Amino acid sequence: MRLWSLHPSILDRAALVACWREGLLAQKVLAGGTRGYTRHPQLERFRACARPDDAIGHYLARLHDEATARGYRFDLTRVLAPDAAAPGIPVTSGQLDYELEHLRRKVTARDAAWLPRLDDPARAAPSFILAAGGIESWERP
Question: Could you give the CA distance from residue 42 to residue 71 in angstroms, rounded to a whole number?
Answer without folding.
Answer: 28
